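dumping this here before i forget
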Amino acid sequence: MNEKKIPASYIAGAIQSRSYKAMQRHLEDVLVVYKLSANEWKVLGLIVETPHTTISHICITLDVELPYITDVVNKLVIREYIKKINSKEDKRSKLLVLTPRALNILPLVEEDVRKRMRELLFGITPDELKIYLKILNLIILNDKNITNSVV
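structure:
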């Protein structure tokens, strides 16, 4: 039988770590041209996907603490990529919206990021990429289930 052996957990961890670092490095190489960090890019992307979102929603989605995301958002406000507007439903809540500056530059950044990622993902079919993303989402879901059952 010619079955492939599943690598030991420490090898799988090393592979995951190395691939994450490679993806992050390539992403940052593209973003530095636009003077954006990876976390700023993620926040901007979440606002694109969920217009009029809140800082709390971003924290939950990225599983990051409120003070850190508040700092990232404030930097993006200062640099005029996003603005905070009052919620009509809850006057205490601020909604995040993209500025014209962000709307102009984001398609250019996205194009450059996708080009670099296509190079990095060379040899991976669209179906394999869908499976990879499905696996990552299942890990997130399983993590929530395990965390909720432990608490």
